[in-house]
Amino acid sequence: MPRIDYAGVSCVLQDGETVLDGLLRHGVDVPHACKAGSCGSCLMRAVPPSVPPARAQEGLKAAWKARGYFLACVCRPDRDLAAAGVDADARVPATIAAVERLTESVLRVRLVTSTPFEYRAGQYVTVLRGDGLARSYSVASLPAAGALELHVRLLPGGRMSQWLATVEAGTTVQVQGPSGDCFYLAGREDQPLLLAGTGTGLAPLLGIARDALSQGHRGPLHLFHGAVSATGFYLQQELAEMAAAHANFHYTLTTLADDGPIDATVFSRHPSMTAWRAFVCGDPTIVQSLKKKLFLAGAALRDIHADAFLPSAR
Amino acid sequence: MSNPSSTVSTSLYEQLGGAAAVDAAVDIFYRKVLIDDRISHFFDDVDMDRQRGKQKAFLTMAFGGPHDYSGQDMRAGHAHLRAKGLDGSHVDAVIELLGATLKELGVADPLIAQVAAIAESTRNDVLGR
Fold it and tell me: Looking at the predicted complex, does its ipTM rise above 0.95?
Protein backbone atom coordinates (compact mmCIF):
# COMPACT_ATOMS: atom_id res chain seq x y z
CA MET A 1 0.00 0.00 0.00
CA PRO A 2 1.32 3.48 -0.85
CA ARG A 3 2.74 5.73 1.85
CA ILE A 4 1.78 9.43 1.97
CA ASP A 5 4.01 12.09 3.49
CA TYR A 6 2.33 15.40 4.23
CA ALA A 7 2.91 18.16 6.77
CA GLY A 8 5.25 16.03 8.85
CA VAL A 9 2.82 13.10 8.95
CA SER A 10 3.52 9.80 7.28
CA CYS A 11 0.61 7.45 6.72
CA VAL A 12 -0.02 4.25 4.81
CA LEU A 13 -3.23 4.25 2.79
CA GLN A 14 -5.71 1.43 3.09
CA ASP A 15 -6.95 -0.38 0.00
CA GLY A 16 -8.79 2.07 -2.28
CA GLU A 17 -8.46 4.93 0.22
CA THR A 18 -7.96 8.49 -1.02
CA VAL A 19 -5.09 10.68 0.16
CA LEU A 20 -7.65 12.96 1.84
CA ASP A 21 -9.35 10.15 3.75
CA GLY A 22 -6.01 8.67 4.78
CA LEU A 23 -4.79 11.99 6.17
CA LEU A 24 -8.08 12.70 7.94
CA ARG A 25 -7.92 9.20 9.47
CA HIS A 26 -4.51 10.17 10.86
CA GLY A 27 -5.92 13.35 12.38
CA VAL A 28 -4.46 15.77 9.83
CA ASP A 29 -6.75 18.76 9.36
CA VAL A 30 -7.01 19.10 5.58
CA PRO A 31 -9.53 21.63 4.21
CA HIS A 32 -12.16 19.82 2.15
CA ALA A 33 -15.81 20.11 1.18
CA CYS A 34 -17.29 18.20 -1.79
CA LYS A 35 -15.07 15.09 -1.62
CA ALA A 36 -15.83 14.58 -5.29
CA GLY A 37 -12.96 16.25 -7.12
CA SER A 38 -14.91 19.37 -7.83
CA CYS A 39 -14.69 22.21 -5.30
CA GLY A 40 -10.90 22.44 -5.09
CA SER A 41 -10.78 22.84 -1.30
CA CYS A 42 -8.32 19.97 -0.80
CA LEU A 43 -5.83 21.13 -3.45
CA MET A 44 -2.28 19.92 -2.74
CA ARG A 45 1.05 19.83 -4.49
CA ALA A 46 3.14 16.72 -5.14
CA VAL A 47 6.75 17.23 -4.12
CA PRO A 48 9.10 16.07 -6.91
CA PRO A 49 9.98 13.40 -7.75
CA SER A 50 6.50 12.32 -6.63
CA VAL A 51 3.94 12.48 -9.44
CA PRO A 52 0.19 12.48 -8.73
CA PRO A 53 -2.13 10.15 -10.70
CA ALA A 54 -3.74 11.81 -13.73
CA ARG A 55 -7.26 11.29 -12.36
CA ALA A 56 -6.41 13.50 -9.37
CA GLN A 57 -5.48 16.36 -11.73
CA GLU A 58 -8.56 16.26 -13.96
CA GLY A 59 -10.13 19.66 -14.45
CA LEU A 60 -7.20 21.64 -13.04
CA LYS A 61 -5.60 24.50 -14.95
CA ALA A 62 -2.69 23.39 -17.15
CA ALA A 63 -0.27 25.57 -15.19
CA TRP A 64 -1.33 23.87 -11.97
CA LYS A 65 -1.01 20.39 -13.44
CA ALA A 66 2.49 21.21 -14.58
CA ARG A 67 3.38 22.17 -11.02
CA GLY A 68 2.14 18.87 -9.64
CA TYR A 69 -1.08 20.18 -8.10
CA PHE A 70 -3.77 17.58 -7.43
CA LEU A 71 -7.02 17.07 -5.53
CA ALA A 72 -6.51 14.87 -2.48
CA CYS A 73 -10.15 13.73 -2.35
CA VAL A 74 -9.91 11.86 -5.66
CA CYS A 75 -6.25 10.84 -5.37
CA ARG A 76 -5.76 7.09 -5.05
CA PRO A 77 -2.05 6.71 -5.77
CA ASP A 78 -0.52 3.39 -6.71
CA ARG A 79 2.88 4.38 -5.34
CA ASP A 80 4.32 6.46 -2.50
CA LEU A 81 3.58 10.16 -2.67
CA ALA A 82 5.14 13.15 -0.92
CA ALA A 83 2.75 16.09 -0.82
CA ALA A 84 2.72 19.65 0.48
CA GLY A 85 0.27 22.54 0.75
CA VAL A 86 -0.27 24.80 -2.24
CA ASP A 87 2.01 27.75 -2.91
CA ALA A 88 0.81 31.13 -1.70
CA ASP A 89 0.30 32.33 -5.26
CA ALA A 90 -2.48 29.79 -5.86
CA ARG A 91 -4.65 31.83 -3.50
CA VAL A 92 -5.24 35.55 -3.33
CA PRO A 93 -6.44 37.50 -0.31
CA ALA A 94 -9.82 39.16 -0.78
CA THR A 95 -11.90 41.56 1.27
CA ILE A 96 -15.57 40.95 1.87
CA ALA A 97 -16.90 44.24 0.50
CA ALA A 98 -20.61 43.66 1.01
CA VAL A 99 -23.11 41.00 2.05
CA GLU A 100 -26.72 41.54 1.02
CA ARG A 101 -29.59 39.37 2.11
CA LEU A 102 -31.62 38.87 -1.10
CA THR A 103 -34.22 36.53 0.38
CA GLU A 104 -34.62 34.47 3.52
CA SER A 105 -32.29 31.87 2.09
CA VAL A 106 -29.96 33.64 -0.36
CA LEU A 107 -27.07 36.03 0.27
CA ARG A 108 -25.24 38.08 -2.33
CA VAL A 109 -21.59 38.42 -1.35
CA ARG A 110 -19.15 40.78 -3.04
CA LEU A 111 -15.42 40.14 -2.72
CA VAL A 112 -12.61 42.44 -3.81
CA THR A 113 -9.32 40.66 -4.42
CA SER A 114 -6.05 42.30 -3.41
CA THR A 115 -4.51 41.62 -6.81
CA PRO A 116 -6.15 41.27 -10.22
CA PHE A 117 -7.95 37.92 -10.48
CA GLU A 118 -8.64 36.44 -13.91
CA TYR A 119 -11.83 34.46 -14.41
CA ARG A 120 -14.78 33.96 -16.72
CA ALA A 121 -18.29 34.65 -15.45
CA GLY A 122 -19.88 31.28 -14.67
CA GLN A 123 -16.68 29.67 -13.38
CA TYR A 124 -16.41 28.96 -9.67
CA VAL A 125 -13.96 29.90 -6.98
CA THR A 126 -13.13 28.39 -3.61
CA VAL A 127 -13.44 30.77 -0.66
CA LEU A 128 -11.27 29.90 2.34
CA ARG A 129 -11.87 31.37 5.77
CA GLY A 130 -8.94 32.11 8.07
CA ASP A 131 -9.31 28.76 9.85
CA GLY A 132 -9.20 26.83 6.55
CA LEU A 133 -12.95 26.24 6.19
CA ALA A 134 -13.53 26.16 2.43
CA ARG A 135 -16.57 26.26 0.14
CA SER A 136 -16.90 26.89 -3.58
CA TYR A 137 -19.25 29.34 -5.26
CA SER A 138 -19.98 30.32 -8.84
CA VAL A 139 -19.25 33.84 -10.01
CA ALA A 140 -22.17 35.92 -11.34
CA SER A 141 -20.17 39.05 -12.14
CA LEU A 142 -18.03 40.07 -15.09
CA PRO A 143 -14.37 40.84 -14.33
CA ALA A 144 -15.02 44.47 -15.34
CA ALA A 145 -17.41 44.83 -12.39
CA GLY A 146 -14.46 45.07 -10.02
CA ALA A 147 -15.87 42.79 -7.32
CA LEU A 148 -16.60 39.06 -7.47
CA GLU A 149 -20.35 38.54 -7.06
CA LEU A 150 -21.29 35.25 -5.38
CA HIS A 151 -24.74 33.93 -4.46
CA VAL A 152 -24.69 31.94 -1.25
CA ARG A 153 -27.53 29.68 -0.19
CA LEU A 154 -28.11 29.94 3.54
CA LEU A 155 -28.23 26.45 4.94
CA PRO A 156 -29.42 25.66 8.44
CA GLY A 157 -26.22 24.84 10.32
CA GLY A 158 -24.15 25.71 7.23
CA ARG A 159 -20.81 26.75 8.72
CA MET A 160 -19.70 29.04 5.90
CA SER A 161 -23.11 30.43 4.92
CA GLN A 162 -24.15 31.25 8.50
CA TRP A 163 -20.79 32.89 9.10
CA LEU A 164 -21.15 34.99 5.94
CA ALA A 165 -24.64 36.08 7.04
CA THR A 166 -23.20 37.95 10.01
CA VAL A 167 -19.62 38.70 8.99
CA GLU A 168 -18.33 42.28 9.17
CA ALA A 169 -17.59 44.03 5.89
CA GLY A 170 -13.83 44.35 5.50
CA THR A 171 -13.06 40.85 6.76
CA THR A 172 -10.37 39.08 4.75
CA VAL A 173 -10.69 35.63 3.17
CA GLN A 174 -8.60 33.75 0.60
CA VAL A 175 -9.86 33.03 -2.90
CA GLN A 176 -8.59 30.10 -4.96
CA GLY A 177 -9.36 29.31 -8.57
CA PRO A 178 -11.14 29.82 -10.82
CA SER A 179 -12.29 26.36 -11.93
CA GLY A 180 -14.89 24.95 -14.27
CA ASP A 181 -15.70 25.21 -17.94
CA CYS A 182 -19.29 26.40 -17.65
CA PHE A 183 -18.86 29.79 -19.34
CA TYR A 184 -19.59 31.61 -22.60
CA LEU A 185 -17.12 31.46 -25.46
CA ALA A 186 -17.50 33.99 -28.25
CA GLY A 187 -18.30 32.64 -31.69
CA ARG A 188 -21.52 31.34 -33.23
CA GLU A 189 -23.22 34.58 -32.14
CA ASP A 190 -26.56 33.64 -33.68
CA GLN A 191 -26.92 30.34 -31.82
CA PRO A 192 -29.88 30.10 -29.42
CA LEU A 193 -28.71 29.76 -25.81
CA LEU A 194 -30.54 27.90 -23.08
CA LEU A 195 -29.66 28.84 -19.50
CA ALA A 196 -31.48 26.62 -17.04
CA GLY A 197 -30.91 26.18 -13.34
CA THR A 198 -32.37 25.88 -9.90
CA GLY A 199 -31.76 27.80 -6.69
CA THR A 200 -28.41 29.60 -6.61
CA GLY A 201 -27.64 27.89 -9.92
CA LEU A 202 -28.84 31.31 -11.07
CA ALA A 203 -25.42 32.79 -10.20
CA PRO A 204 -23.41 31.21 -13.04
CA LEU A 205 -26.34 31.57 -15.45
CA LEU A 206 -26.61 35.28 -14.72
CA GLY A 207 -22.85 35.61 -15.21
CA ILE A 208 -22.98 33.72 -18.51
CA ALA A 209 -25.92 35.84 -19.72
CA ARG A 210 -24.11 39.06 -18.81
CA ASP A 211 -20.98 37.80 -20.56
CA ALA A 212 -22.80 36.71 -23.74
CA LEU A 213 -24.73 40.00 -23.98
CA SER A 214 -21.62 42.09 -23.34
CA GLN A 215 -19.81 40.18 -26.09
CA GLY A 216 -22.63 40.95 -28.53
CA HIS A 217 -24.37 37.58 -28.73
CA ARG A 218 -27.19 38.07 -31.26
CA GLY A 219 -29.17 34.82 -30.93
CA PRO A 220 -31.90 34.47 -28.30
CA LEU A 221 -30.95 33.75 -24.66
CA HIS A 222 -33.62 31.85 -22.76
CA LEU A 223 -33.03 31.81 -19.02
CA PHE A 224 -35.18 29.48 -16.90
CA HIS A 225 -34.91 29.82 -13.14
CA GLY A 226 -36.50 26.98 -11.21
CA ALA A 227 -37.36 26.83 -7.51
CA VAL A 228 -39.44 24.62 -5.28
CA SER A 229 -41.84 27.52 -4.67
CA ALA A 230 -41.93 31.22 -5.51
CA THR A 231 -40.06 32.11 -2.29
CA GLY A 232 -36.96 30.59 -3.91
CA PHE A 233 -36.73 33.28 -6.60
CA TYR A 234 -34.42 36.25 -6.28
CA LEU A 235 -33.04 39.14 -8.37
CA GLN A 236 -36.32 39.25 -10.34
CA GLN A 237 -36.02 43.02 -10.70
CA GLU A 238 -32.50 42.88 -12.18
CA LEU A 239 -33.46 40.10 -14.56
CA ALA A 240 -36.59 41.95 -15.67
CA GLU A 241 -34.42 45.00 -16.37
CA MET A 242 -32.01 42.88 -18.43
CA ALA A 243 -34.97 41.57 -20.43
CA ALA A 244 -36.22 45.12 -20.98
CA ALA A 245 -32.77 46.28 -22.10
CA HIS A 246 -32.05 43.36 -24.45
CA ALA A 247 -34.70 42.22 -26.91
CA ASN A 248 -33.00 38.81 -27.26
CA PHE A 249 -32.95 38.04 -23.51
CA HIS A 250 -35.93 36.08 -22.18
CA TYR A 251 -36.50 35.18 -18.56
CA THR A 252 -38.90 32.56 -17.21
CA LEU A 253 -39.62 31.54 -13.62
CA THR A 254 -40.83 28.04 -12.95
CA THR A 255 -41.82 26.37 -9.68
CA LEU A 256 -41.88 22.70 -8.88
CA ALA A 257 -45.17 23.24 -7.02
CA ASP A 258 -47.08 24.80 -9.93
CA ASP A 259 -45.23 23.85 -13.10
CA GLY A 260 -43.52 20.54 -12.28
CA PRO A 261 -39.83 19.88 -12.86
CA ILE A 262 -37.93 22.60 -14.71
CA ASP A 263 -37.44 20.40 -17.79
CA ALA A 264 -41.23 20.23 -18.28
CA THR A 265 -41.32 24.01 -18.75
CA VAL A 266 -38.18 24.10 -20.90
CA PHE A 267 -39.31 21.40 -23.31
CA SER A 268 -42.91 22.62 -23.57
CA ARG A 269 -41.48 25.91 -24.93
CA HIS A 270 -38.54 24.46 -26.87
CA PRO A 271 -39.07 20.82 -27.85
CA SER A 272 -36.02 20.65 -30.14
CA MET A 273 -32.55 21.55 -28.89
CA THR A 274 -30.79 20.83 -32.19
CA ALA A 275 -28.12 23.50 -32.78
CA TRP A 276 -28.64 25.08 -29.34
CA ARG A 277 -25.93 25.75 -26.78
CA ALA A 278 -27.02 24.99 -23.23
CA PHE A 279 -25.84 25.83 -19.73
CA VAL A 280 -27.36 23.95 -16.79
CA CYS A 281 -26.50 24.62 -13.16
CA GLY A 282 -27.68 23.82 -9.66
CA ASP A 283 -29.04 20.68 -8.01
CA PRO A 284 -26.95 17.68 -9.19
CA THR A 285 -29.90 15.36 -9.86
CA ILE A 286 -31.71 17.99 -11.92
CA VAL A 287 -28.52 18.93 -13.78
CA GLN A 288 -27.78 15.29 -14.69
CA SER A 289 -31.34 14.70 -15.83
CA LEU A 290 -31.51 17.93 -17.86
CA LYS A 291 -28.19 17.20 -19.51
CA LYS A 292 -29.42 13.82 -20.71
CA LYS A 293 -32.74 15.22 -21.90
CA LEU A 294 -31.09 18.12 -23.73
CA PHE A 295 -28.79 15.66 -25.49
CA LEU A 296 -31.71 13.42 -26.47
CA ALA A 297 -33.59 16.53 -27.67
CA GLY A 298 -30.81 17.09 -30.19
CA ALA A 299 -28.15 19.27 -28.52
CA ALA A 300 -24.60 18.14 -29.25
CA LEU A 301 -22.93 16.93 -26.05
CA ARG A 302 -20.06 19.38 -26.50
CA ASP A 303 -22.61 22.22 -26.58
CA ILE A 304 -23.99 21.31 -23.15
CA HIS A 305 -22.13 22.95 -20.28
CA ALA A 306 -23.15 21.69 -16.88
CA ASP A 307 -22.21 22.66 -13.35
CA ALA A 308 -23.71 20.47 -10.65
CA PHE A 309 -23.60 22.08 -7.20
CA LEU A 310 -22.37 19.27 -5.00
CA PRO A 311 -23.29 19.49 -1.34
CA SER A 312 -20.50 19.77 1.18
CA ALA A 313 -19.53 16.43 2.65
CA ARG A 314 -19.18 17.75 6.19
CA MET B 1 2.25 -3.04 -47.23
CA SER B 2 3.40 -6.44 -46.05
CA ASN B 3 0.35 -6.68 -43.84
CA PRO B 4 -2.73 -6.87 -46.08
CA SER B 5 -5.20 -6.60 -43.22
CA SER B 6 -3.84 -3.23 -42.09
CA THR B 7 -4.15 -1.94 -45.65
CA VAL B 8 -7.80 -2.97 -45.70
CA SER B 9 -8.47 -1.42 -42.28
CA THR B 10 -6.92 1.90 -43.22
CA SER B 11 -8.95 2.07 -46.36
CA LEU B 12 -12.15 1.29 -44.47
CA TYR B 13 -11.49 4.19 -42.08
CA GLU B 14 -10.71 6.46 -45.01
CA GLN B 15 -13.75 5.35 -46.97
CA LEU B 16 -15.94 6.14 -43.98
CA GLY B 17 -14.44 9.61 -43.72
CA GLY B 18 -11.92 9.22 -40.88
CA ALA B 19 -12.06 11.28 -37.70
CA ALA B 20 -14.79 13.55 -39.09
CA ALA B 21 -17.02 10.51 -39.61
CA VAL B 22 -16.45 9.41 -36.02
CA ASP B 23 -17.38 12.92 -34.83
CA ALA B 24 -20.54 12.86 -36.94
CA ALA B 25 -21.50 9.42 -35.69
CA VAL B 26 -20.75 9.58 -31.97
CA ASP B 27 -23.66 11.74 -30.74
CA ILE B 28 -26.14 9.91 -33.01
CA PHE B 29 -24.92 6.53 -31.77
CA TYR B 30 -24.87 7.58 -28.09
CA ARG B 31 -28.46 8.93 -28.35
CA LYS B 32 -29.60 5.61 -29.79
CA VAL B 33 -27.90 3.77 -26.93
CA LEU B 34 -29.53 6.00 -24.29
CA ILE B 35 -33.07 5.55 -25.59
CA ASP B 36 -32.83 1.82 -26.28
CA ASP B 37 -34.69 0.00 -23.49
CA ARG B 38 -32.57 -3.12 -24.00
CA ILE B 39 -29.34 -1.42 -22.94
CA SER B 40 -30.02 2.11 -21.64
CA HIS B 41 -30.00 0.99 -17.99
CA PHE B 42 -26.29 0.18 -18.24
CA PHE B 43 -25.69 3.91 -18.79
CA ASP B 44 -27.89 5.46 -16.10
CA ASP B 45 -25.23 6.71 -13.73
CA VAL B 46 -22.31 7.44 -16.02
CA ASP B 47 -20.56 10.75 -16.58
CA MET B 48 -21.84 11.59 -20.07
CA ASP B 49 -18.71 13.42 -21.24
CA ARG B 50 -16.45 10.54 -20.25
CA GLN B 51 -18.85 8.07 -21.80
CA ARG B 52 -18.84 10.04 -25.03
CA GLY B 53 -15.04 9.73 -25.03
CA LYS B 54 -15.35 5.97 -24.65
CA GLN B 55 -17.95 5.73 -27.42
CA LYS B 56 -15.63 7.74 -29.63
CA ALA B 57 -12.73 5.37 -28.98
CA PHE B 58 -15.01 2.41 -29.69
CA LEU B 59 -16.31 3.90 -32.95
CA THR B 60 -12.78 4.78 -34.08
CA MET B 61 -11.75 1.17 -33.56
CA ALA B 62 -14.89 -0.24 -35.24
CA PHE B 63 -14.34 2.10 -38.19
CA GLY B 64 -10.88 0.58 -38.65
CA GLY B 65 -9.11 3.69 -37.38
CA PRO B 66 -6.07 4.14 -35.17
CA HIS B 67 -6.73 2.86 -31.67
CA ASP B 68 -5.02 1.39 -28.65
CA TYR B 69 -7.82 -0.89 -27.52
CA SER B 70 -6.67 -4.26 -26.30
CA GLY B 71 -8.72 -7.35 -25.56
CA GLN B 72 -7.60 -7.00 -21.96
CA ASP B 73 -9.00 -3.43 -21.79
CA MET B 74 -12.29 -4.68 -23.20
CA ARG B 75 -12.46 -7.46 -20.64
CA ALA B 76 -11.61 -5.25 -17.66
CA GLY B 77 -13.71 -2.32 -18.91
CA HIS B 78 -16.90 -4.39 -19.05
CA ALA B 79 -16.46 -6.45 -15.87
CA HIS B 80 -18.78 -4.17 -13.85
CA LEU B 81 -21.43 -4.48 -16.58
CA ARG B 82 -21.15 -8.28 -16.69
CA ALA B 83 -21.87 -8.16 -12.95
CA LYS B 84 -25.09 -6.31 -13.86
CA GLY B 85 -26.13 -9.01 -16.33
CA LEU B 86 -24.45 -7.99 -19.59
CA ASP B 87 -24.88 -10.81 -22.12
CA GLY B 88 -24.80 -11.53 -25.86
CA SER B 89 -28.21 -9.93 -26.51
CA HIS B 90 -26.76 -6.58 -25.37
CA VAL B 91 -23.80 -6.93 -27.71
CA ASP B 92 -26.30 -7.67 -30.51
CA ALA B 93 -28.18 -4.48 -29.64
CA VAL B 94 -25.02 -2.35 -29.74
CA ILE B 95 -23.97 -3.73 -33.12
CA GLU B 96 -27.48 -3.16 -34.45
CA LEU B 97 -27.47 0.48 -33.24
CA LEU B 98 -24.03 0.97 -34.76
CA GLY B 99 -25.42 -0.20 -38.11
CA ALA B 100 -28.48 2.05 -37.80
CA THR B 101 -26.20 5.03 -37.05
CA LEU B 102 -24.16 4.43 -40.19
CA LYS B 103 -27.33 3.90 -42.25
CA GLU B 104 -28.59 7.26 -41.02
CA LEU B 105 -25.34 8.86 -42.16
CA GLY B 106 -25.78 7.36 -45.63
CA VAL B 107 -23.02 4.74 -45.42
CA ALA B 108 -23.28 1.89 -47.96
CA ASP B 109 -24.25 -1.58 -46.71
CA PRO B 110 -20.95 -3.36 -47.56
CA LEU B 111 -19.03 -0.86 -45.41
CA ILE B 112 -21.55 -1.22 -42.59
CA ALA B 113 -20.97 -4.98 -42.72
CA GLN B 114 -17.21 -4.45 -42.34
CA VAL B 115 -17.74 -2.20 -39.31
CA ALA B 116 -20.12 -4.73 -37.78
CA ALA B 117 -17.51 -7.46 -38.27
CA ILE B 118 -14.86 -5.48 -36.38
CA ALA B 119 -17.33 -4.76 -33.56
CA GLU B 120 -18.27 -8.45 -33.54
CA SER B 121 -14.60 -9.35 -33.00
CA THR B 122 -14.74 -7.79 -29.52
CA ARG B 123 -17.69 -9.92 -28.39
CA ASN B 124 -15.76 -12.57 -26.46
CA ASP B 125 -13.63 -10.02 -24.63
CA VAL B 126 -16.66 -7.87 -23.76
CA LEU B 127 -18.45 -10.93 -22.42
CA GLY B 128 -15.35 -12.16 -20.62
CA ARG B 129 -15.25 -15.50 -22.42
Answer: no
